[in-house]
Write a structure and sequence with these properties.
Chitobiase, domain 2, flat, 12 helices, endoplasmic reticulum, GPI transamidase component PIG-S, alpha/beta, membrane
């Protein structure tokens, strides 16, 4: 081999040495960082395999202890145990103690003379008072058990709906229930917006005592502060016309809107109802003042009857009420507190419906209490705990699937920390449920939901999604293609020369030597 050939071979080898040395450096410096996530554990949470949701609720029977009453309580326990065998909410009947919980006080003194058999009243806190006539004492276990199961039945159905909805997403089941789908989804903060919308430019309501009316809402919002934070805003709009024409009644003395037209009522395209650029979920309460030429305007239900409240709910959005002006008033441009009071009573009722607040059986009398009594508030807590556990778990599952499918997605350490935090607080939530510490469970579930959403919507994860593999090939091929061509051709040529040289040497060794 000549000196020039050796020199050429060393030059080619040197070039390829630096290329091979640079490849791992380039690979390491351009790789996408992906923090390790517990994908299998996240998937198990999403499938509901890590937490058995169950609410154990003690119910205290406050009654004089004697042999008959003890037998009655034992029979009540048997009935309750049999009927709630598959329930998520488990009632545990106990004798009187100092626990501040659901309590039933029984009395046969019949203080109310007009009661012939049994009377049920809620006066304060979590106590249900039952006055009964002595002759129905043998029926008390059945009456009390049916009452208790009625009280908790709506909560049971709500929780089951969400659990089955989760199951349907995994097993392709179809599930639809307007009662539950209208409920606004959980948010750590809600913006409540009261809007006064005038449908005309004439005879408008330009002032309303909204600050005074908010007093009706404040006590309720204080009660709900453990669930979410609520911000209250208000606004007035003018010249907000309907997209359709209401029809006249047969008598010709009023205008009407059928239930089929409810979805078209709010003109989202032209009514600018957004007050802020907040990322919080908004619950709208809208008072609509129709133009004078279509007043009075009333809403009709599915059975073609007038709706007494003249209002309707928009699922997961808010509530709308139509206010017809009394043109005999001295000042029709002002909605005073007297006129707003019945409107706000309707809004409060609709607000509780949007939150999914369970109601109590109609046969239980409720004496003047705070807007939301403890029985209903506790039920709302239980529903939100369930919803939060499911929401946080499903978010973990979605993030796990996303991380497995999109390989060029960055997973920063912060996301890993948020996922770990979510799992920790989900475990704490489930442990608090087992210990019947529902306030702690609610707080932990809120933290779990917020951490899960923070992890899923981390903005740094989507940065590399704008540079898929096809984009990389389009950049690297024009850049490195011309560089590799002069490197590959000499390498192939030198490899070919090496093979020829090797074959020549091998043939020389095989040739026999001639003796002289």
């Amino acid at each position: 081999m000549s000196f020039c050939q050796k020199q050429k071979r060393w030059i080619v080898a040197t070039y390829w040495f630096f290329v091979l040395l640079a490849i791992p450096i380039w690979w390491k410096t351009t790789e996408i960082y992906r923090a390790k996530l517990p994908l299998k554990l996240m998937d198990k949470w999403a499938k509901g395999q890590m937490c058995n949701i169950q609410f154990d609720i003690p119910v205290i029977i406050d009654i004089t202890h004697n042999s008959n009453n003890i037998k009655m309580i034992e029979k009540l326990k048997q009935i309750i145990s049999t009927k709630q065998e598959k329930n998520i909410i488990k009632l545990h009947i106990k004798s009187i103690d100092n626990i501040f919980t659901n309590r039933i006080m029984l009395s046969n003194y019949m203080k109310k003379k007009n009661i012939k058999s049994v009377s049920m009243n809620i006066y304060r806190n979590r106590t249900l008072f039952i006055d009964y006539h002595p002759h129905i004492f043998p029926k008390l276990p059945k009456i009390i058990s049916e009452t208790l199961l009625d009280i908790f039945s709506l909560q049971e159905k709500y929780i089951n709906f969400y659990l089955k909805a989760t199951e349907s997403r995994h097993k392709s089941l179809e599930l639809d229930n307007n009662t539950y789908t209208k409920v606004v989804k959980y948010s750590s903060t809600f913006d409540i917006v009261f809007s006064l919308v005038n449908g005309d430019e004439k005879n408008v309501v330009s002032f309303w005592d909204i600050k005074k009316a908010e007093v009706y809402f404040r006590p309720l919002l204080r009660q709900l502060s453990a669930l979410s934070e609520f911000n209250v805003e208000s606004q007035i709009h003018f010249c907000s016309e309907l997209t359709f024409n209401p029809y006249k009644s047969k008598q010709g003395n009023m205008f009407q809107i059928s239930i089929d037209q409810f979805p078209e009522f709010v003109n989202f395209a032209e009514w600018n109802l957004e007050t802020t650029f907040s990322s919080h979920k908004i619950i709208n309460f809208l008072v609509y003042v129709p133009p004078r030429n279509i007043q009075p305007l009333f809403l009709k239900d599915l059975h073609d009857n007038l709706i007494t409240t003249n209002s309707f709910l928009v699922p997961q959005w808010g509530s709308i009420i139509i206010h017809n002006q009394n043109h005999t008033d001295i000042d029709i441009s002002h909605l005073n507190i007297t006129q707003l009071q019945p409107i706000f009573h309707i809004f409060i009722s609709n607000f509780l419906s949007l939150l999914g607040t369970p109601s109590l059986p109609s046969y239980i009398s409720i004496e003047p209490l705070p807007v939301l009594n403890a029985w209903r508030l506790d039920g709302l807590y239980r529903q939100r705990i369930t919803e939060n556990i499911i929401s946080a778990s499903e978010t973990l599952g979605s993030l796990a699937r996303l991380a497995q499918r999109i390989h060029n997605m960055v997973i920063p350490d912060q996301v890993q920390q948020d996922v770990s935090k979510t799992i920790d607080y989900l475990k704490k939530t489930c442990q608090s449920l087992n210990d019947s510490k529902f306030s702690n469970a609610l707080n932990y579930s809120r933290i779990a939901v917020n951490s899960a959403e923070k992890a899923f919507f981390d903005p740094s994860m989507v940065s590399m999604l704008y540079f898929p593999d096809e984009h990389k090939y389009g950049v690297y091929l024009p850049l490195f293609g011309p560089l590799f061509f002069p490197l590959v051709i000499p390498l192939l040529r030198e490899f070919s020369n090496f093979l020829k040289s090797w074959k020549t040497k091998r043939n020389e060794k095989k040739e026999p030597r001639h003796t002289e």
